[in-house]
Amino acid sequence: MKIKTAIFDLDGTLLDTLGDLADSVNAALQRHGFPPATEEQVRERVGNGVRMLVARCLPQDAEDALIDACLDDFRTVYDRRMMNRTQPYEGILRVLKTLKKEGVAVGVLSNKYDLAAKGLVRHYFGDLCQITCGEKPDVPRKPDPSSTLQLLRELGGNPATTLYIGDSSTDMQTAKNAGLTAVGVAWGFRSAESLLEAGADALAHRPSDLLPLFEHGVFNAAAIGSAFTARSFGFTYFPTAQQALPYLAEACRGKTVSLGGSMTLRELGVADALADGSDLHWHWLTPSDYKQDAEVYLTSANALSETGEIVNIDGNCNRVAGTLFGPKRCIFVCGVNKLCDDLTSAIWRVRNVAAPMNAKRLSCKTPCAIDGKCHDCRSADRICSALVVHMAPPKGMEACEIVLIGETLGY
After folding, report:
1. pTM above 0.90, yes or no
2. Given Cys at both, which of 67, 99, 103, 282 links 259, Cβ 3.0 to 4.6 Å?
3. Which residues contact 138 (CB under 8 A, 6 or more apart)?
């Protein structure tokens, strides 16, 4: 389901505002004779509006009059310096430009006071965000859903095709209270674990991870798993690569393991994770170290169909050969970027996404390496010698499974 509307949090999601927030709150604290807070302390205390941030930086018994006085000083300073150290997170501008090009309606909802929120969004993002709403008198702050639902109405969005994207448990709770899909970003002020505990439906570890979610929506891991297990594949899902690595290490412990050429496995650091506990063979580490009859064969897939098929394309064909015959157990390790709606779209992906990216990586002299489109060329550098679709596990294998990771990995 294509996503048509996005509501972003601001601090810790679109903008790294921590430095300016810390400088401003410390200026207010020092004026009233209190010691400054560290940036890490400020990081832990943001997320529920600036008055709460100021109150959390004062002694617990601080009276309202003192909190209000410090808040006034904070705002005076912050209005002057809120663009001194603040910057968009790397990759955010590209995401917003892509969303605008794709016609996605984008709004920003922040517990930062309204004037500052609007000023920051206007300065850093211009017309990439259509509507910005900050804290206003008599309007409940997040996680109350009132402002979220009002913003959604102004954007003309539908809850079923809207993502709410933020970096805190408050954001996740806001999304749930408003009936929206909650996407937690792990580059902000809170950990990935805390976001999952707060109910995140999906995680993004870098801004580019957001774009596949807009193309297909947040996937249902249970439903996808059922599609594969119905075909007798094993299936395991991990929200993060960090959670998946121990499972893979245990599956390979004490065994002869061969790895197929895979950017996914390289990005995961699988070779390092298995080095001490397995007899590891990988031609990317040692040229010509091919072992097609290993006890465990680890590789990735160029595409996974949500109807339960695994699709790969290969040039030398050693990689796909290991998935078909020889090993006792084959494990396909894939990021969510490999998911496609059906077999047709999976085949399209391997030809028009994975193959061109690999051709470019290998400096192949093929048309697809230049324009990113499959030409079914006859180039001597063509890396598309075999297209393999697994519709069920090979009969000679003891086990064939998919390990799906809720991150963008590989091509």
Report:
1. no
2. 282
3. none
